[in-house]
Design brief:
With about 250 residues, the protein is of the alpha/beta class. The protein has helices at about 20-25, 45-55, 80-100, 115-120, 125-135, 150-155, 190-205, 230-245; strands at about 1-10, 30-35, 60-65, 105-110, 140-145, 160-165, 205, 215, 220-225, 245-250. A 7-stranded parallel barrel has the order 1-2-3-4-5-6-9, surrounded by 6 helices. A two-stranded antiparallel sheet has the order 7-8. It is globular and about 40 Å long.
Length: about 250
């Protein structure tokens, strides 16, 4: 029996603007990365998402990003490591307040979007993020791109890390994700994407856009909650996991 965590980026609605099908998705996943109000989400959405995650016994994580509601946090920003440290600390603290009020534990932290991708390559950015996590609560699990600078930095800081792979994204030969500006960055064929994930979990390999075979570690699989087919994707993936004798991890202990 193999084990895998299944996570989804959630709580990304804002005011009257609704994104995703969080209530239904939460019935099928083990970890929820909840937006903290900078790239998406607001105080009402944060509370509602935590309440739903609690109801379905889903692990709760902070999903901090750049302060860029218009760009959904997917545009790179020129921000100093010192400011990145502060914005990470601010957002973790905000979500943690809601979790405390609902008497649930914050389990992990996963940076969002452009910040996540920049931290995968830049050690100073990665170090700023991991230092903020460690200073806030060193028991928090750090989610990061498999084999990235963020994972290495987290390990050096003594944090527990979860190496993440993506069901719906393509990879470059260096193991980074293909930029969303490129036409082939997103995989829309659900069955093909599921086959890739099974291979990542069981064989530790994925094929890059140029045909290169990349070694990869899969502790947790990400589904993007803002994608229209997210729920269908998750159900298809869970069915494949059962057939392959892969169990979804409900606890990191």
């Amino acid at each position: 029996m193999s084990y895998i965590d299944l996570n989804c980026d959630l709580g990304e609605s804002y005011g009257l603007f609704k994104i995703g099908n969080d209530k239904e998705v939460l019935k099928h996943i083990s970890s929820a990365n909840i937006a903290c109000g900078y790239h998406a989400g607001d105080h009402n959405v944060m509370m509602e998402t935590i309440q739903m995650a609690k109801k379905y016994h889903v692990n709760i994580g902070a999903h901090p990003g750049f302060p860029d509601l218009l760009g959904f946090g997917r545009r790179e920003m020129k921000v100093s490591p010192r400011e990145i440290y502060n914005l990470i600390l601010y957002q973790i603290g905000a979500l943690s307040a809601f979790a405390k009020a609902q008497e649930v534990k914050l389990v992990h932290v996963k940076p969002h979007g452009a910040l996540y991708n920049m931290a995968a390559k830049s050690r100073p950015i990665a170090d700023a993020i991991t230092q903020a996590v460690a200073d806030y609560d060193s028991s928090l699990i750090l989610f990061g791109l498999s084999g990235s600078e963020l994972i290495e930095s987290g390990k050096e800081k003594g944090l527990m890390t979860a190496q993440e792979v993506f069901a719906d994204r393509t990879y470059q030969p260096d193991g980074t994700l293909t930029s969303r500006n490129d036409r082939n960055s997103i995989i829309h064929d659900l069955k093909f994407a599921v086959q890739r994930i099974i291979r990542m979990v069981k064989e530790g390999k994925v094929t890059a856009t140029d045909g290169t075979e990349i070694a990869i570690t899969a502790d947790t699989v990400c589904i993007h909650g803002d994608e229209p087919a997210a729920l269908e994707f998750i159900i298809e993936l869970k069915h494949a996991f059962r057939n392959e004798n892969i169990a979804i991890r409900k606890s990191w202990s």
